[in-house]
Design goal:
The chain is α/β, with parallel strands linked by helices. Helix content is about 40%, strand content about 20%.
Length: about 325
C-alpha cells in the first residue's frame, strides 16, 4: 500500500459523536480498498469525540481539531481541501460504511471519466444499530425512472440532463453515500457554509449541471437515524434553506417545465413556513406566506391555507 498516493480520501466531520464515532471510523478503515486516507475533523465537540478519534491507531487516519463552526459544511470543506486523492468520499460520524463501497465506486469512476459522482442505495438503522429500513431509495418513485439498463459492474449511468431534472423532484442522494471526483468539486465548488440545511442538495444541483452520475442499486452505507440530528430539529429553517437552494437552481434553467417544478417545490416550502406561523399564532405572517405560495405556484390548497390562518389555533407555544 502506498500511503503517499491514496486512491480515495474519506472526509468525516464530527460534532459530539463519541457514542458512534469509533464504529464509523473503523467501518472506513475496514474497507477492502486499502489505499485510502481518512480525514476526521472534530468541529469543537464538547464530549470525548476528539479523544475517541485520536485513540485509534492507523497511519491512514488524520485527526484535525477545529473550533466549532455550527454545521458540517466548514469541516467538510476543510477536509476536501486537504484531500490528496482524486476522489473524495463523505461519511457522517454516526453512519457506517460497507466494506466494498469505496472499491466499487472508485472502479466505476475510473471507467467513466464523464461522471463526477458515484452513489448507492443505503439502509437505515436506529441509535442502537438496529436495522429498520433495508432500502431507502426504493421509496423514491421519480428516481426509479432515471435508472436505465445496468452497465458493467451493475452500475447505472445517469446522463447529466436526466440527473439534473431528477433532482428537481427528489433529493435521492444520501450524503454518506457519495464518492465525488475532486476535479469536479474544484470546478463547481464545495459546500456552501452559509446554509444550515440543504447544503447537500445545493452541491448535488451544481454537480448535476457539470457531469453525469453513477448509481449502484446495492447498500453502500448504513444511515443512523437519531433524535437531535439536524434533519429532525423542529422549526421552519429547513424550509427557508430549501427555498434559497431552489431559487438558485431555478436561475440555472431556461425551460418552462423545470422552472414550474421548482416553483411548485418553493410553494410547498413556503406553505411549511406558513403552517409554522399558524402554529405559533402569527396569523398575518401565515396569511402573507400562503399568498406567496399561491403566487409561486397557484393551487387551491394555498388559498385554503391563507383562509385558515385566521381560524382559532389549537396549538400555540
Amino acid at each position: 500500500m502506498n500511503l503517499q498516493q491514496p486512491r480515495v480520501s474519506v472526509v468525516m466531520p464530527v460534532y459530539n459523536a463519541q457514542r458512534h464515532l469509533a464504529a464509523a471510523i473503523r467501518s472506513v478503515l475496514a474497507s477492502d480498498l486499502a489505499e485510502l486516507e481518512l480525514i476526521v475533523l472534530d468541529d469543537g465537540s464538547r464530549d470525548d469525540s476528539l479523544a475517541v478519534a485520536r485513540g485509534i491507531a492507523d497511519p491512514r487516519l488524520q485527526v484535525v481539531a477545529l473550533p466549532a463552526s455550527g454545521g458540517p459544511s466548514r469541516p467538510r470543506n476543510l477536509g476536501i481541501a486537504q484531500a490528496r486523492a482524486p476522489y473524495v468520499a463523505l461519511l457522517d460520524a454516526d453512519d457506517l460504511m460497507k466494506p466494498d463501497k469505496l472499491s466499487l465506486a472508485v472502479a466505476a469512476l475510473d471507467a467513466h471519466p464523464g461522471a463526477g459522482i458515484a452513489f448507492s442505495d443505503y439502509e437505515r438503522i436506529d441509535s442502537d444499530g438496529r436495522l429498520f429500513e433495508e432500502s431507502t431509495l426504493s421509496g423514491y418513485p421519480k428516481f426509479a425512472q432515471l435508472t436505465g439498463p445496468a452497465i458493467a459492474g451493475g452500475w447505472h449511468l445517469i446522463r447529466q440532463e436526466d440527473f439534473a431534472r431528477g433532482l428537481l423532484h427528489e433529493n435521492f442522494i444520501g450524503t454518506s453515500g457519495v464518492v465525488l471526483r475532486k476535479s469536479v468539486l474544484d470546478r463547481v465548488g464545495a459546500f456552501d457554509e452559509a446554509l444550515t440545511y440543504s447544503e447537500d442538495r445545493d452541491l448535488w444541483f451544481r454537480i448535476a449541471h457539470a457531469s453525469d452520475a453513477l448509481y449502484l442499486p446495492r447498500i453502500g452505507h448504513a444511515y443512523r437515524v437519531a433524535p437531535g440530528s439536524l434533519s429532525f430539529r423542529p422549526g421552519d429553517q429547513q424550509a427557508r434553506s430549501r427555498i434559497v437552494v431552489l431559487e438558485r437552481e431555478k436561475r440555472r434553467w431556461q425551460a418552462s417545465a423545470p422552472r414550474r417544478e421548482i416553483d411548485r417545490r418553493i410553494a410547498e416550502n413556503l406553505a411549511a413556513i406558513g403552517y409554522e406561523h399558524r402554529r405559533c399564532g402569527r396569523r398575518l405572517a401565515a396569511f402573507a406566506t400562503f399568498l406567496r405560495a399561491m403566487s409561486a405556484s397557484p393551487q387551491l390548497r394555498w388559498l385554503r391555507g391563507a383562509a385558515g390562518s385566521f381560524a382559532p389555533s389549537l396549538h400555540r407555544r
